[in-house]
Amino acid sequence: MHLIVLFLIGVIFGTGIVVSGMANPAKVINFFDVAGTWDPSLIFVMGGALIVTAVGYRIVFGRGRPIFEGKFSLPTARNLDARLIGGSAVFGIGWGISGFCPGGALPALGTGRIDVIAFVAAMLAGIFAAKYLQSLSRARAQAAQ
After folding, report:
1. Rounded Cα–Cα distance for residues 14 and 8 (Å)
2. Residue 72 and residue 59: Cα distance in Å, rounded?
3. Which of 39, 63, 97, 141 is most deeply packed, by most CB within 10 A?
């Protein structure tokens, strides 16, 4: 049952991404091009997502506990460190250059377009490279102790 619910959530999310235009890199790039062919329609998509999320959080946290877990797993870190700022910058630059973010690229994989496949491949390579560099950093820190 848990996997079916996760699948349905993914289908709903992917459908919303496609219907809203977030899987169309040209629309996303035009949103960022405020000095040229600016398309403000994604503001409404993002605003609608914020409203749905706010309502969803109220409902979910009002239950006291999740349906499929014993307790909520929420992040506790509140510090702004170099990893968070650097990762946010890389994400934003990649989104602005390619017109894809992971949420928009994964549903767009179904189109089979080479630019989507290249973006997802580069994203996965970046994830693995970051994990590798993180493990090297940990190993060096442990060796120094």
Report:
1. 10
2. 13
3. 39
pTM value?
0.73
Which residue, among 46, 118, 130, 119, has the nearest Cα to 87 in the 3D structure?
Answer: 130
Residue by residue, what is the 3-state secondary structure of the chain? Answer: CHHHHHHHHHHHHHHHHHHHCCCCHHHHHHHHCCCCCCCCHHHHHHHHHHHHHHHHHHHHHHCCCCCCCCCCCCCCCCCCCHHHHHHHHHHHHHHHHHCCCHHHHHHHHHHCCHHHHHHHHHHHHHHHHHHHHHHHHHHHHHHHC
Over the stretch 111-128, which tens digit does the pLDDT of each residue have?
899 999 999 999 999 899
CA 132 to chain centre: 21
> How far apart are the C-alpha atoms of 104 and 28, rounded to whole Å?
10
**Residue carrying the six token digits 């910058």:** 89
Can you tell me which residue has the tokens 């690229």?
105
- C-alpha 104/C-alpha 94 separation (Å) is 13
